[in-house]
Amino acid sequence: MNVNDILTKALALLGVEDVTVSAGSTDARLAKLVTALGVAYMRLITEYAPIEKEASVTVSGGSYDLTTLEHPVFDALRLIDEWGESVPFRLRGRTLLAGDGRYTLRYYALPAAYPAVGDTIEVSPKVTLDLFARGVAAEYAMASMMYEESLLHERKYKEGLMKALAPHGTKTVSVKRWI
After folding, report:
1. CA-CA-CA-CA torsion for 28, 34, 38, 41, nearest 10 degrees?
2. Angle, in degrees to the nearest 10, between helices 129-143 and 28-43
3. What's the sign of the alpha-carbon dihedral 57, 96, 44, 70?
4. 120-151, pLDDT tens digit by residue?
5. Which of 30, 76, 110, 154 has its CA 20 to 30 A from that of 87?
6. DSSP state of 71
7. Which residue ranges make up each domain of the chain?
8. Rounded to whole angstroms, how far apart are CA atoms 50 and 45?
């Protein structure tokens, strides 16, 4: 998702028309909006829709340093051996403790960098630009002490997240026969 699009949509939701989203801007409101984007993004990926990654790791000496992975690890989900079986493991700080061998690690990742104007961010495909912009607008309104507007955007954001992220199973309709 493009950060500029998110910020522009959030400004529209807030009714702010005199702020332009550009990398060289010195407007304090844009800086506050980027901070609100960062807070909303971290809340989204740590509380509601984590980013799942997979990496091949080789454990030697009973431990593996997680800082060597491409993305910082928020939480580990599963450690899978070469035969597709789950292997017991523990996390201790930034170290994965497991038996020696080659594994596939499934984990939740944190972003490598803070979102900035002109960048792109990675979110779950179920979270739309409009929905995420609503969360950014809620954080900006809270930081700007517009509490009622913040509560309105926050309520709509959370309702949208619950609908978007709810599991949708298959539905069947029973066959009725007329006699």
Report:
1. 140
2. 120
3. negative
4. 888 888 899 999 999 999 999 999 999 999 99
5. 110
6. S
7. 3-49+123-165, 51-109
8. 4
Give which of 62, 82, 72 is closest to 111, Cα–Cα: 72
In 109-139, which positions are buried (b, 16+ CB within 10 angstroms) versus exposed (e)? Answer: bebeeebebeeebebbeebeeebbbbbbbbb
Backbone phi and psi for residue 60, each to the nearest 5 degrees, phi listed first? -135, 140
Task: Give the integer Cα–Cα distance in Å for 168 and 77.
Answer: 22
Given this model, what pLDDT does residue 165 score? Answer: 87
Q: What are the Cα distances from residue 136, in Å, to 5, 21, 33?
A: 12, 14, 7
Write the DSSP string, 104-166.
EEEEEE--SS---TT-B----TTS-HHHHHHHHHHHHHHHTT-HHHHHHHHHHHHHHHHHHHS
Q: Is 152 exposed, middle or buried (0-12, 13-18, 19+ CB in 10 A)?
A: middle
Q: Tokens 């619950």 sit at which residue?
A: 162
The secondary element (H helix, E strand) that includes residue 38 is helix 28-43
